[in-house]
Amino acid sequence: MYKSIVRPLLFRFDPEGVHHFSFKAIKFLSKVPGFSSLSRKRYKLKHPALKRQLFGLEFENPVGLAAGFDKDAKAYSEFSDLGFGFVEIGTLTPKPQAGNPKTRLFRLKQDGAIVNRMGFNNGGVDAAVERLKRNKKRISSASMLDARNNSRPEALEGRRNKHTLIGGNIGKNKVTPNEKAVDDYIICFNKLFDHVDYFTVNVSSPNTPGLRELQDRKPLTHILQTLQDLNNAKAARKPILLKIAPDLTDNQLMDIIGIVEDTKIDGVIATNTTIERKELKSDITLQKEAGGLSGAPLTNRATEVISFLHQKSNGAFPIIGVGGIMTAQDAIDKLKAGASLVQLYTGFVYEGPALVRDINREIIKQGL
């Protein structure tokens, strides 16, 4: 139904407008009696083979929603109802920022791809924290009410499903110079610490000028070690992951392995969007749009990066694979290349929630 009816209708309109409309629609439908339950029944699989123990966390299944979709923590519970085992919010910055000028999001339909130059548009970390707090209170209150009213087991199960594993993807404001970038990451880390299950340090978006320079060994080590020191001083630390670009050279990837070893962070997310434009079929004007390219053209490169990191590090750290997962087989390929979990973004836009279900079904089938 999504690919035959919903997607053709949505794809007739501006991508960013559709994104905001979809959020409102998902939030509205979740309030319709029975809709969330029906969504979970259709898309959310439960099976022992899907569970993953990683970073000290238990993932109900290994398929997550990548950062950039629920930037401001507005609908992570609703996305969990569509089958995701975890949701990464953000990228969040200390101060709200509008991002880059519109138009800044483009569909390359012939390539199964998206180009975006959003520029970390978000309402700021404080607004996200308030939403996370409100949702936690709402769930706790509803759960206590269910218990007092002796709710049916299936109703209580629905409440438990709302306790979604959440990653907090953090970045720096555009106006913050690189030499002070660590301060922005510290602010986001401290404010989000009690409200997310893990952190992702984003230094790899191509849409904030100079950001990718922070992937160089010295500044990146400084940022990660600073956060790790803060983390280790907490009563109970949270996993810290690093999200990297697919455009790094082999030497740069070797540096990443060394940085992970030196700072002892918990893992890597591979990969972010690419600035490469190779063998695309879509209109040349779309190909020339500045920004990060995601979707099918990134499939092979993202898998190559995962394989390289896994092999060269001898599997020393977990990898979350993301980039061009458009089919269940794409996800399987990344898991076999060395990823422990996977995330969707563009594949979810093009294929809908059935892709989440299909990936989990294939994982069960293959016993991965």
From TrEMBL:
Ligand binding (FMN): 67-71, 91, 169, 202, 243, 271, 295, 324, 345-346
Pathway of action: Pyrimidine metabolism; UMP biosynthesis via de novo pathway; orotate from (S)-dihydroorotate (quinone route): step 1/1
One Gene Ontology term from the biological process aspect of the record: 'de novo' UMP biosynthetic process
Catalytic activity, EC: 1.3.5.2
Cofactor note: Binds 1 FMN per subunit.
Gene3D superfamilies: Aldolase class I
EC primary class: oxidoreductase
Membrane topology classification: Peripheral membrane protein
PROSITE patterns: DHODEHASE_2
Active site: 205 (nucleophile)
Cofactor dependence: FMN
Compartments where located: Cell membrane; Membrane
Gene Ontology MF annotations: dihydroorotate dehydrogenase (quinone) activity
Keywords: Cell membrane, Flavoprotein, FMN, Membrane, Oxidoreductase, Pyrimidine biosynthesis
Superkingdom of this protein's organism: Bacteria
Catalytic activity as recorded in UniProt: (S)-dihydroorotate + a quinone = orotate + a quinol
Stated family: Belongs to the dihydroorotate dehydrogenase family. Type 2 subfamily.
Name of this protein: Dihydroorotate dehydrogenase (quinone)
